[in-house]
Write a structure and sequence with these properties.
Blueprint (H helix, E strand, L loop, with lengths): L1 E13 L4 E13 L3 E6 L5 H8 L7 E6 L2 E2 L5 H5 L3 E4 L13 H6 L10 H14 L16 H13 L5 E5 L7 H18 L2 E5 L3 H7 L2 E6 L2 E7 H6 L4 H8 L11 H8 L18 H5 L5 E3 L2 E3 L7
Parallel strand pairs: 3-8, 3-9, 6-7, 7-8
Antiparallel strand pairs: 1-2, 1-4, 4-5, 9-10, 10-12, 11-12
Helix pairs in contact: 4-5
This protein binds adenosine-5'-triphosphate and magnesium ion (MG).
Length: about 300
Amino acid sequence: MCLLKVTGLTKTFKNKKDRVYALKGIDFSIKQGECLGLVGESGCGKSTAAEIIARLIKEDSGTIEFNGAYITSEKRLKCVGRDLQMVFQNPKDSFDPKYSLLESVMMGADSYRIYSKIELIKRAKELIKYVGLKESYMYKGIGGLSGGECQKASIARALICSPKLIIFDEATSALDVSVQAQIIDIMRRLKEEKGVSFLFITHDLALTSSICDNIAVMYSGRIVEYGKCRDVLCNPKHPYTKQLVSSVLPVNRRCDIPEFNALRDTQYAPKGCDYYAFCPNADEKCFKNVLHMFQIEGRSVLCCHADD
Ligand SMILES: Nc1ncnc2c1ncn2[C@@H]1O[C@H](COP(=O)(O)OP(=O)(O)OP(=O)(O)O)[C@@H](O)[C@H]1O
Ligand SMILES: [Mg+2]
């Protein structure tokens, strides 16, 4: 069953001087018990997409279907509620240090009134153990926990309402590799034992391949390649994905089409390929053709040279 379906999502931020086209129309979906990795360079729009889905900011256009209902309407909070939770990069910022670990985890259920007080304490204690935190920490101040322990606490807090989807926005990037591995293990257990779905935002392709079923590669507000993780990472088709996988920094080609440069200067590229300036295969076709996804070898690729 499709739990989350995002269609044609766009978002523009208006600064004093100019506009930032943060999302230029992205589509993806996540089934129950599935993990989608969202990867791409800094500033390509990953957090904007996550924040719109988690109804922290509003989209310009597009639709989000979650658990069988559209959540773009004014009733979005009611539609999503406890079923969708988000875990952020810096967990310490999202906790009030004056509360204990147990109280902090219990707070995840505050607005929903789904448990009696006794049930809530029991559930919070179970989850603290589930994420691998020591029982002796229950009454310890949350401010005294390490970064990795705090991230586990924020996962426990997200889990207290038994969500169907958890968004991890760079939630493992500040942690050392052993804690990262423990968190990936928690995610795997949640997928397998409880059918929880994940949107996993990261810069780390190795982590993506170890936990994600599918991957969406973003570049400049668009998804440029989307498919099964092993297909895309083992045999990338879009030039940007190839560059990402090989970790070779792109060289900024001299653009020889003046109209293209003029459009880039205004940060407005409604038609042509955004990766044009870096792409070794680029020609006039890339700039002049209307962009659309090509279906090739089991994935979607936003590149008119994908099957050359
Ligand atoms: N509130 C805002 N006001 C103006 N511009 C914004 C705002 N939020 C995001 N942006 C811009 O939108 C674009 C997408 O930002 P976003 O935070 O979604 O990128 P990201 O892919 O999450 O990057 P990172 O990997 O660094 O977290 C960037 O150019 C960013 O500067
Ligand atoms: Mg971000």
